[in-house]
Amino acid sequence: MKSENFETIAIRTQTERSLHKEHSSPIYLTSSYKFDDAEEMRALFANEKEGNVYSRYSNPNTSEFIEKMCLLEGAEDGFATATGMAAIFTTFGAFLKNGDHLVSSRSVFGSTHQLLTNVFSNWGVTFDYADLDKPQDWEALIKPNTKMIFVETPSNPGIDIIDLEFLGNLAKKHQILLVVDNCFATPYLQQPIKFGAHISIHSATKYIDGQGRVLGGIILGTKELIADAIGFARHSGPALSPFNAWILSKSLETLAIRMDRHCENALKVAEYLEKHPKIKLVKYPFLPSHPQYTIAKKQMKQGGGIVTIVVEGGIEAARKFMDGLQMFSISANLADTRSIATHPATSTHSKLTEAQRNEVGIEQGSIRLSIGLEHINDILADIEQALA
C-alpha cells in the first residue's frame, strides 16, 4: 500500500526482508559484499548493475535511511554522511572549485563559518555573507563566478528566517545552486526542495536521531547532483556507519510525533519568556513578534523546538541563569528529548569575533534553549526558578 502521509512513509519504508522474514530491519554490519561471479563484480564496479560493492559506497542500512529521507523531503536521491558537517563539507567540496564564489547567510553554524574562512578560502573559493533579514541585498552580491547560495533557515542560534521561495527564484534566475541547511526544521516542518532548493542538508545527529545517541548527516537533491556528491564522497570517505544509519532510520518512525511535542512545548516556553521582566529578547518563528513570522507561517508547518533568548544583564546574568537550571542540561548539542541550554558566545560560536557574533544577533546574554519532551510544567518551573 502506497501512502503520501509523512508518518506512514517514515514507519513503513524499509529494506527488502531477508529469508528470515524479520519484521524490523536488521543491522548489516559488513564492510564488504560477495559477488556471484567475476562478471557481476565487473558490472557493479562499472555501475551497469545496481547493488552493494563496499560499505563506504552503500549499505542496506544507509540505503533505507536515504530512501526514507528522500520520500519525506521530496528529493530524488541522497547520500548519508558520518556527521552533519561532513554533509556540508562534501557539498562544498563537490560543487565548488578554485575561483568559484559563494553567497552565504551570515548566520551559520560556527563550524560552517570555519570551513568558509579557514578551509575553502585556502582552496581559492571566495564568499560573501548576507543577512537573512535583508533579502533586498542578496542579488547585488551575486557575481559572474557565483556558483552557490547557502543558507540556514531557521538559523543557528539566531532563529532568523528567509523566504525560500524568493531564494529559489533568485537561484533560478542566475542559474546557481541553492543549498539549504534544513537541520532545525526537519523534513516534517519544512521541505526546501518544494520552494526551489537544489540540495537540502541535515545534521541527522539532531532531530532525526532526537535522543542524543549517534552522529550522522545527509545530502538530498536530484539524481544528477547527488551523483556528483557521491563521486566526491566515495574517495574522500565521509560515509555513515551501518549501525548509525539503522538508528537514524528507526528514529524517523517517531519524528512526527516528537516534533509535534517539541513545537508545542517550545511555543509555550517562548510565550512565557516573552512576558518575563528578566528577558530582553525572545526569538521563535511562530511568535507574532518574530520579524519573519509571516514567512515562517508560509513555509513551515510549526515553529520548531529551539527558542533563543537574551537575558537582561549580559554574560553574568546568562551564566547565573544557566548555573541555576536544575533539570535542563548544559550542553553544546540540541534537538534531544532532554531540554538543553547553550551559551553560543562561549561555545558553538566562540571562534567568531565579537563583531561577527553581534552581526548575527549573538549577544553575551544570548542563550539557546533546545526544548525537550519533558512535561511542559516541569520545563517552565525549571526556567522560572533559574530566573528567580
UniProtKB/TrEMBL annotation:
<keyword id="KW-0663">Pyridoxal phosphate</keyword>
<dbReference type="Pfam" id="PF01053">
    <property type="entry name" value="Cys_Met_Meta_PP"/>
</dbReference>
<comment type="pathway">
    <text>Amino-acid biosynthesis; L-methionine biosynthesis via de novo pathway; L-homocysteine from O-succinyl-L-homoserine: step 1/1.</text>
</comment>
<dbReference type="InterPro" id="IPR000277">
    <property type="entry name" value="Cys/Met-Metab_PyrdxlP-dep_enz"/>
</dbReference>
<feature type="modified residue" description="N6-(pyridoxal phosphate)lysine">
    <location>
        <position position="206"/>
    </location>
</feature>
<dbReference type="GO" id="GO:0005737">
    <property type="term" value="C:cytoplasm"/>
</dbReference>
<dbReference type="InterPro" id="IPR006234">
    <property type="entry name" value="O-succ-hSer_sulfhydrylase"/>
</dbReference>
<dbReference type="GO" id="GO:0019346">
    <property type="term" value="P:transsulfuration"/>
</dbReference>
<dbReference type="GO" id="GO:0071268">
    <property type="term" value="P:homocysteine biosynthetic process"/>
</dbReference>
<protein>
    <recommendedName>
        <fullName>O-succinylhomoserine sulfhydrylase</fullName>
        <ecNumber>2.5.1.-</ecNumber>
    </recommendedName>
</protein>
<keyword id="KW-0486">Methionine biosynthesis</keyword>
<dbReference type="GO" id="GO:0071266">
    <property type="term" value="P:'de novo' L-methionine biosynthetic process"/>
</dbReference>
<dbReference type="GO" id="GO:0016846">
    <property type="term" value="F:carbon-sulfur lyase activity"/>
</dbReference>
<comment type="function">
    <text>Catalyzes the formation of L-homocysteine from O-succinyl-L-homoserine (OSHS) and hydrogen sulfide.</text>
</comment>
<comment type="subunit">
    <text>Homotetramer.</text>
</comment>
<dbReference type="InterPro" id="IPR015421">
    <property type="entry name" value="PyrdxlP-dep_Trfase_major"/>
</dbReference>
<dbReference type="GO" id="GO:0030170">
    <property type="term" value="F:pyridoxal phosphate binding"/>
</dbReference>
<dbReference type="InterPro" id="IPR015424">
    <property type="entry name" value="PyrdxlP-dep_Trfase"/>
</dbReference>
<dbReference type="GO" id="GO:0016765">
    <property type="term" value="F:transferase activity, transferring alkyl or aryl (other than methyl) groups"/>
</dbReference>
<comment type="similarity">
    <text>Belongs to the trans-sulfuration enzymes family. MetZ subfamily.</text>
</comment>
<dbReference type="InterPro" id="IPR015422">
    <property type="entry name" value="PyrdxlP-dep_Trfase_small"/>
</dbReference>
<keyword id="KW-0028">Amino-acid biosynthesis</keyword>
<keyword id="KW-0808">Transferase</keyword>
